[in-house]
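Annotators were shown the component list below and the corresponding predicted structure, then asked to write short factual statements about the assembly.
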Amino acid sequence: MSITRRTFLYQAALLSAATAVTQQASAMTKEQTFIHHVYFWLNNPESKEDKAALIAGLKKLSVVKTIASFHIGEPAPTNRDVIDRSYSVSWCLFFKGSDDQASYQVDPIHLNFVKECSHLWKKVVVYDSIDI
Amino acid sequence: MSITRRTFLYQAALLSAATAVTQQASAMTKEQTFIHHVYFWLNNPESKEDKAALIAGLKKLSVVKTIASFHIGEPAPTNRDVIDRSYSVSWCLFFKGSDDQASYQVDPIHLNFVKECSHLWKKVVVYDSIDI
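Structure shown to annotators:
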């Protein structure tokens, strides 16, 4: 094999590897952000202890590895007709795609959270959305 | 004034400035993330044109300077009893504190969005939450 031919093949291999990396990166950026936003209504909304117990449970839950980022919140002071501020705790999770959210649902840490904390709430509303 | 005295005053001024910067940074980190999550139900949920018009309006709206980050989404394919997937478009905004959200509400770009797009929806539900 001539040096020129070897150089060509080497360059072609490099180009191919570079293309593969670029395609992989492109596929990664194409993953749609998945927002899993949960609102909790407590059985005893006046109980500071129950609210604290739920927040503590969510903090334990937040270590699930597929969670990209999370926010534990409570209703802001804003108050207009269109605003629902009747819930007690907001649990906003970001995932890098649907698969990570599906994995979170069956994660033992999540199952344990439901087991330990579900007695605290009377109602949960979930909005799952994916980036357009 | 002696050199020693001048040096002392200079160092005191530096220390004071450094303390002010540190306090400012501390106050900034204490600002609670404000999540303003809006769900839109369209008048004509089957109309691709109306959904596209709302999304285009939200993209125009997203340039408001006080918005820290935003996500335009649609219901994910997930479907369980607790999941509300009856809305058409999700508009999730992050602000660095309540003041930025209040500013957004009266921003001319926001007022113009409402003027141009409010005919598209029949119902809006807003959840405002601040980090605990």
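Statements collected:
1. DSSP finds four helices and four strands in chain A.
2. Confidence is low (pLDDT under 50) at residues 19-29 of chain A.
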